């Protein structure tokens, strides 16, 4: 079923993109308008968040036509004869939509028992994960980068208008060595190479267990064939996996180079899961362009990352919970301690920083997605944080180049940029906590020029 679905998705990707650009979208959910019916939108009397000056502008007027910002003016915009929806912003803050560059849309929406006991059919995923995707959009997240999991059916459904959700930059199945962070086999599942049986996680598109240059090349190319915008490789140990200590380095340099070469041949890049300096230095030597995590980094390696212009995609991982497995608590201890150090050190060395959440198998955490942004206030100003979760994260998305599923500029409010916008009741430059209560404070949510929420409309 998945291969059939993926093939259909890949063959139709160009058609879907043309429909996206020509405004045929969101037709299946009754109270969301189709793009065929979409009017131009004129936002009047709004104060725009300006990253360059780190201020809000004086009240301005913004005209959105189709899916882009057409005009920004200090004086009223004449729209005589046009079919335009006028919205008076009342001097509220207009800012770009939020972006999370480290999500697992499937793994984050399901519990581990749900992952293990269900057949993970397309219908099950679209029902359970689809609701989570809609809720994420209603929290103001208009774009996300999915860094591992069976994401293609959900992305296709959102792009075709079958359900609302954020734009998704998909990685597809994670790529892991045997006994690596993406080796999700249960104890009774034996090696495919020696016993010829594909593991459940591989069968459902969660991971590829690939050893040796040839298998890594095939795994990367399979994901690209399905429509991946970037490749996620497991380069070091993890805290939520059974077989690999956090300190281990995964994949040889040759294997990692193979992944980078295959991705670059398609005009895109590899990002790696890694915590330690040794694993990250090997990844840098192989040519990766982004590091996920890195909470155990030292200053010397952070300086190298900055020198090479590599992105560090960091998180503020959730604290231990009382019912967490003792072995996992032990593995997490150095990582949790390290994240208090790495954020300020990365800032000190001028590392290009991105932000994400990385929620896994605890769906209740998703409701805290906005609140987790506030955790960065220990080390950054509100203006720096707002830029990171919009413009900087958008720059990470566009590392995918021509493999980006949504061409256009995101993360800023300027003429010609894509119309992913939030109208906020409050000034987040002065009080960042306003973005932690999207139900109350996000008066308008727009993605791709469409209004998904409008609290100003009586």
From TrEMBL:
A GO MF term: hydrolase activity, acting on carbon-nitrogen (but not peptide) bonds
Amidohydrolase-related domain residues: 93-451
Position of the signal peptide: none
Pfam families hit by this protein: Amidohydro_1 (PF01979)
Domain of life: Bacteria
Protein name (database record): Imidazolonepropionase
């Amino acid at each position: 079923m998945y291969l059939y679905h993926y093939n259909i998705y890949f063959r139709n990707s160009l058609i879907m993109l043309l429909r996206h650009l020509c405004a045929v979208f969101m037709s299946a959910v009754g109270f969301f308008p189709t793009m065929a019916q979409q009017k131009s939108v004129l936002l009047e009397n709004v104060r725009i968040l300006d990253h360059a000056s780190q201020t809000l502008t004086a009240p301005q007027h913004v005209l959105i036509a189709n899916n882009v910002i057409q005009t920004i003016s200090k004086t009223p915009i004449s729209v005589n004869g046009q079919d335009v929806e006028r919205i008076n912003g009342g001097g509220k803050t207009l800012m770009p939509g939020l972006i999370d560059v480290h999500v697992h849309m499937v793994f984050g929406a399901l519990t581990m028992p749900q992952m293990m006991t269900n057949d993970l059919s397309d219908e099950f995923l679209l029902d359970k994960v689809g609701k989570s995707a809609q809720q994420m959009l209603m929290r103001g997240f208009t774009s996300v980068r999915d860094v591992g999991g069976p994401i293609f059916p959900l992305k296709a459904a959102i792009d075709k208008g079958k359900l609302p959700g954020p734009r998704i930059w998909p990685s597809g199945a994670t790529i892991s060595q045997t006994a690596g962070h993406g080796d999700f086999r249960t104890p009774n599942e034996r090696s495919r190479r020696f016993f010829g049986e594909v593991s459940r996680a591989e069968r459902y598109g969660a991971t590829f267990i690939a050893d040796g240059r040839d298998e890594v090349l095939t795994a990367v190319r399979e994901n690209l064939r399905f429509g991946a915008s970037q490749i996620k490789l497991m380069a070091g140990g993890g805290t939520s996996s059974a077989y690999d200590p956090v300190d281990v380095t995964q994949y040889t340099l040759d294997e990692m180079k193979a992944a980078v070469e295959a991705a670059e041949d398609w005009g895109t890049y590899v990002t790696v899961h890694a915590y330690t300096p040794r694993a990250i230095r090997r990844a840098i030597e192989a040519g990766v362009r982004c590091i996920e995590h890195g909470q155990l980094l030292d200053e010397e390696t952070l300086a190298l990352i900055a020198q090479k212009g590599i992105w560090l995609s960091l998180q503020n991982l959730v604290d231990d919970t009382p019912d967490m497995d003792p072995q996992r608590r032990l593995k997490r201890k150095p990582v949790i301690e390290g994240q208090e150090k790495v954020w300020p050190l990365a800032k000190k060395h001028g590392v290009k920083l991105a932000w994400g959440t990385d929620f896994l198998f605890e769906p209740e955490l998703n409701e805290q997605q906005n609140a987790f942004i506030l955790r960065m206030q220990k080390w950054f100003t509100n203006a720096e944080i707002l830029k990171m979760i919009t413009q900087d994260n958008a720059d990470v998305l566009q590392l995918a180049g021509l493999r980006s599923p949504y061409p256009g500029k995101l993360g800023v409010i300027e003429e010609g940029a894509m119309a992913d916008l939030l109208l906020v009741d409050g000034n987040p430059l002065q009080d960042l906590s306003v973005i932690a209560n999207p139900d109350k404070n996000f008066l308008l949510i727009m993605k791709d020029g469409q209004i998904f929420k409008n609290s100003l409309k009586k």
